[in-house]
Design goal:
heterodimer, A: alpha+beta, two-stranded antiparallel ribbon, 11% strand, globular, B: alpha+beta, Arc Repressor Mutant, subunit A, 2 domains, 6 helices, 24% strand
Chain lengths: 114, 166
């Protein structure tokens, strides 16, 4: 993809702006993501404990708003909190939301399908 | 007290002076001299030399943070590192005021251990997520928050009692 025309949400970030997956306060798993694409992959690598930790602290939406600067994902991800999802159900829903947004950003999905 | 190649070797008298100072760093040279049966000028000379050679690093106040009304939490971090980067990770941590102590250990893996203080759990997490996890070579981090302190003492001359013969 021509990087000049690339949506800003698809940028790759420097280490200090990457998302680091923790399982609890101060316990870093070694899994990190430096772009939204990488984030989508790492959702499947991170433990469900880590996904639960970050979703209900609001860390995902914060990173997507402040670093990725995506217009839609923060509210989409925040909405998942309302369903009290846990375990693989949470992983699946998060994967769906992020993958759908990625497809839209890369032009693989039209607006009507979103 | 001997100086060889600009390195100072402390003798039994120096150690006794250091012990006296560790008990009360505000006492006078005269008082230390009187206790040890040596002239206050000897105490003065020896102390200056030990300061110049870094045997005495600083004179400081030991503050009880709780009584001073300072609310903070202490945590112990174990940082698993890429061996090639561990030295740099330790050096970077050492530059941070929040990090009080940094050690390296080689057990099954190369580890960096560090004692860190933060204003609260959120502050601790933000520090580790924003300043420690992104350091190149950090593989993963285990953090334990201290809930109760049973003992904490700085290194004391009296720990090396054999040398003192007191």
């Amino acid at each position: 993809m021509n990087t000049e025309n690339m949506p800003k949400s698809l940028r790759t970030f420097p280490r200090e702006k990457a998302f680091y997956f923790f399982t609890s306060i101060g316990n870093y798993t070694g899994v990190s993501a430096a772009s939204l694409r990488e984030f989508a992959e790492k959702i499947n690598e991170a433990s469900v404990k880590s996904l639960e930790f970050h979703l209900y602290r609001g860390d995902f939406e914060k990173w997507m708003a402040e670093v990725v600067q995506d217009d839609e994902l923060p509210s989409e991800v925040k909405r998942l909190q309302r369903f009290n999802l846990m375990g693989d159900a949470l992983r699946n829903q998060l994967t769906t939301v992020v993958s759908r947004r990625l497809k839209r950003l890369t032009g693989q999905l039209g607006p009507s399908q979103f | 007290m001997k100086i060889k190649n600009d390195a100072l070797t402390v003798d039994a008298t120096d150690l006794k002076i250091l012990k006296a100072l560790q008990e009360d760093a505000r006492q006078t040279y005269a008082n230390i001299g009187k206790r040890l049966g040596i002239a206050h000028s000897t105490v003065y000379d020896r102390l200056r030399k030990m300061e110049r050679h870094g045997v005495i690093k600083q004179y400081t106040a030991v503050v009880d943070g709780e009584k001073a009304g300072l609310k903070s939490i202490t945590a112990l971090m174990t940082i698993y590192t890429d061996p090639k980067e561990s030295e740099r990770v330790a050096e970077e941590l050492s530059k941070t005021p929040k990090v009080l102590e940094v050690y390296a250990s080689l057990s099954e893996e190369l580890l960096i251990m560090a004692k860190v203080v933060a204003e609260n759990q959120e502050g601790l997490h933000a520090f580790i997520a924003n300043s420690v996890a992104p350091l190149p070579g950090v593989l993963r981090i285990r953090t334990s928050i201290v809930t109760k302190k049973f003992k904490e003492t700085p290194f004391s001359i009296t720990n090396d009692a054999d040398k003192l013969h007191l």
